[in-house]
Design a protein that fits this description.
Layout: H1 19-35, H2 40-47, H3 51-59, H4 66-75, H5 80-95
Helix pairs in contact: 1-3, 1-5, 2-3, 2-4
InterPro entries: Cro/C1-type_HTH, Lambda_DNA-bd_dom_sf, TransReg_Diox_bact_type
Organism: Acidovorax benzenivorans
Keywords: DNA-binding, Transcription, Transcription regulation
């Protein structure tokens, strides 16, 4: 019997990007940031990510990793639960 090799990464053609979810998350981050009167550049710096990356997240062009979500929530001085709840609200508003 021949041993199968394990390949790292996603299978060809697979994707985990969901545009609607990415846009809702970005809108939630922007809403919480503006509510706290934090500049995008400051939030990016406090989160430890590039400003351009933060812009892509807020525009829904990039789906952040779990680690980045935690960093953003920490910089916004809120829990990830608040961030996710706000995202759910943005999703509901977009779908209605």
């Amino acid at each position: 019997m021949q041993k199968r090799t394990v390949q790292r990464g996603r299978p060809a053609g697979a994707t985990t990007f969901d545009a609607e979810l990415a846009q809702a998350f970005g809108a939630a981050v922007r809403a919480l940031r503006l509510e706290r009167s934090i500049a995008q550049e400051s939030l990016a710096h406090q989160s430890g990510i590039e400003r351009s990356h933060m812009g892509k997240i807020e525009r829904g062009e990039h789906m952040p990793t779990l680690a980045i979500i935690f960093k953003i929530a920490d910089a916004l001085e809120c829990s990830t639960a608040v961030l996710m709840s706000t995202t759910e609200g943005q999703l509901a508003a977009a779908r209605s």
